[in-house]
Design goal:
This protein is of the alpha/beta class. It folds into two domains: about 180 residues, FAD/NAD(P)-binding domain (3-Layer(bba) Sandwich), CATH 3.50.50; about 120 residues, FAD/NAD(P)-binding domain (3-Layer(bba) Sandwich). About 25% of the residues lie in helices and about 25% in strands. It has seven helices and 19 strands. The strands form five sheets. Strands 1, 2, 3, 4, 5, 6 and 19 form a seven-stranded mixed sheet that branches. Strands 8-15-9-10-11 form a five-stranded parallel sheet. A three-stranded antiparallel sheet has the order 12-13-14, with no helix packed on it. Strand 12 and strand 13 form a beta hairpin. Helix 1 packs parallel to helix 2, helix 1 packs parallel to helix 7 and helix 5 runs parallel beside helix 6. InterPro entries: FAD/NAD-bd_sf, FAD/NAD-binding_dom, Ferredoxin-NADP_redctase_2, Pyr_nucl-diS_OxRdtase_2_AS, Thioredox_Rdtase. Belongs to the class-II pyridine nucleotide-disulfide oxidoreductase family. It catalyses: [thioredoxin]-dithiol + NADP(+) = [thioredoxin]-disulfide + NADPH + H(+).
Length: about 325
């Protein structure tokens, strides 16, 4: 089936694009390979989204976005796109479940958590190693946890983990945090939070569950090994060191910068009729509010593109 607009990804950017597309009476399809909502659906508190109601959460915000998309008639399906043909006027997307055609495409594939890439990380993921405090924080009630990173996400998640853990230690690879000053202040003044400076994890160890980790002081070169408390038997390591854009499918097809899709201020890529929105594109600020804004702009510009390229031609 041919659509006016296909949106790849159902995070805040994709849902915003789908909402605007459907509301503009475009035949709109949103394709998501994984869970609807992207990163924000695992966030416990969304306090910086304008108009957020009291105690707003990622899941509740996404649920409202999905409801709006459905109300305006956007179609949503789950499939993994494996091949794309973007150079012709009609774009072709090939997935594991089917083939899709569209006059315009909006890429909103987002980003995924970066890994430390150290021995034991992969084997112990879900067994003490996590990338989502909201998902796994309660598993570490009354245990010790370590948070890797020094930015906004790391500090915010460290604060969230204080609800469960008896102690939270932030492992910063530098001598200062990079989070916003307001967040730093909360972290530095919290009785449950400590910070280890100039520290990097070199290895994670355990027999089926995280039991120890090897730490390097990158200033002195000293190597130490931290072991779980004997009574606990384990501890938690939560990794928040940024995200990797999910753009591999578009390599050698779209202009990229450090793996992110390059667009202009109207979300247009270097290929006519192809737009990008949200965390997958090269931008300064990656937040829900900017993702939603990107999606809205991309959809409006896609509508204008279709109007100019197709409807004008049809009237000739």
């Amino acid at each position: 089936m041919e659509y006016d607009l296909i949106v790849i990804g159902a995070g805040p950017a994709g849902l915003s694009a789908g909402l605007y597309g459907a509301r503009a009476k475009m035949n709109t399809l949103i394709i998501e390979k994984d869970k609807t909502g992207g990163q924000i659906v695992t966030t416990d508190e969304v306090a910086n989204y304008p108009g957020s109601i009291q105690n707003a959460t990622g899941p509740s915000l996404i649920a409202r976005m999905v409801e709006q998309c459905d109300e305006f008639g956007a179609k949503r399906i789950k499939d993994k796109i494996t091949k794309i043909e973007l150079d012709e006027k009609i774009k072709i997307l090939k997935g594991e479940k089917g083939e899709y055609k569209a006059k315009a495409v909006i890429i909103a594939t987002g980003a995924s958590p970066r890994k430390l890439n150290v021995p034991g990380e992969k084997e112990l993921t879900g067994k003490g190693v996590s990338y989502c405090a909201t998902c796994d924080g309660s598993f570490f009630t009354d245990l010790e946890v370590f948070v890797v990173g020094g930015g906004d996400s790391a500090c915010e998640e460290a604060m969230f983990l204080t609800k469960f853990a008896r102690k939270v230690t932030i492992l910063s690879r530098s001598s200062q945090l990079t989070a916003a000053k307001s967040i730093q202040e909360k972290v530095l003044n919290h009785e449950k939070v400590e910070i280890m400076w100039n520290v990097e994890i070199k290895e994670l160890k355990g027999d089926g569950i995280l039991e120890s980790m090897v730490l390097l002081n990158n200033k002195t070169g000293e190597i130490t090994e931290y072991f779980a408390d004997e009574d606990d038997g384990t501890f938690g390591v939560f990794i928040f060191i940024g995200f990797a854009p999910q753009t591999k499918l578009f390599e050698d097809k779209l202009e990229m910068k450090h793996g992110y899709i390059v667009t202009d201020s109207n979300m247009r890529t270097n290929i006519p009729g192809v737009f990008a929105a949200g965390d997958c594109r090269d931008k300064i600020l990656r937040q829900v509010v900017t993702a939603a804004g990107d999606g809205a702009i991309a959809s409006v510009m896609a509508e204008k593109y279709i109007e100019n390229e197709f409807k004008t031609a049809d009237n000739v």
